[in-house]
């Protein structure tokens, strides 16, 4: 099925469908990862000045989302990457990821960093990041070495 044109919106995190996709994201993270290793942000944690959140729409249907957290000195952390179940396998995640990379680049970013899980559930995400030029790296910022986490970076 060909992917329709996506519309990205800088989102205020108030629409019910956006709230629901973020709730599903957290539910999945806690279902497959030990709680102490979950680094996904809840709605309140996403509503801070250093985080910009985008929703991705196909017509009137929400199909994905993602956020960039400014870490300073040109570093951005990818947060809350998610596609809806109906949108999976159609290139939405790649489009969201590329949009976020371009946003970081347009803000003068030098690197995009991220943390994701090591469980089999996260394998599609790890393939997505590796396939888009991200390479594994040690923990960054306040993250600690954790057998349930893998860290990536992309130089811009």
Helices and strands, with pairings:
Elements: E1 7-10, H1 16-32, H2 43-46, E2 51-58, E3 61-72, E4 75-83, H3 92-106, E5 111-117, H4 123-131, E6 135-137, E7 149-155
Parallel strand pairs: 4-5
Antiparallel strand pairs: 1-2, 2-3, 3-4, 5-7, 6-7
Could you characterize the architecture of this molecule?
The model has no long low-confidence stretch (mean pLDDT 96). The chain starts with 6 loop residues before the first strand and ends with a strand. The longest helix is centred in the N-terminal third of the chain and has 17 residues, at 16-32. It is built from four helices and seven strands, in the order βααβββαβαββ. It has 156 residues and is an alpha+beta fold. Strands 1-2-3-4-5-7-6 form a seven-stranded mixed β-sheet, with helices on both faces.
Largest sheet: 7 strands, mixed
Estimated share of beta-strand residues: 25-35%
| Largest sheet strand order | 1-2-3-4-5-7-6
Order of helices and strands: EHHEEEHEHEE
Distance between the termini: 31 Å
Number of helices: 4
Structural class based on helices, strands and sheet pairing: alpha+beta
Low-confidence stretches: none
Count of individual beta strands: 7
Could you report the average pLDDT, rounded to the nearest whole number? 96
Radius of gyration from CA coordinates? 15 Å
Q: Give the CA-based shape.
A: globular
């Amino acid at each position: 099925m060909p992917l329709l044109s996506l519309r990205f919106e800088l989102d205020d995190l108030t629409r019910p469908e956006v709230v629901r996709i973020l709730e599903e994201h957290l539910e999945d993270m806690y279902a497959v990862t030990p709680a102490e290793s979950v680094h996904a942000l809840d709605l309140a944690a996403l509503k801070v000045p250093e985080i910009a959140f985008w929703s991705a729409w196909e017509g009137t249907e929400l199909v994905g989302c993602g956020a960039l957290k400014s870490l300073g000195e040109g570093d951005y952390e990818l947060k809350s990457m998610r596609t809806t179940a109906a949108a999976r396998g159609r290139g939405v995640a790649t489009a969201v990821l590329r949009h976020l990379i371009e946003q970081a680049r347009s803000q003068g970013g030098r690197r995009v960093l991220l943390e994701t899980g090591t469980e089999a559930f996260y394998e599609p995400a790890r393939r997505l990041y590796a396939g888009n030029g991200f390479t594994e790296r040690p923990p960054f910022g306040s993250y600690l070495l954790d057998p349930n986490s893998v860290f990536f970076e992309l130089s811009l």
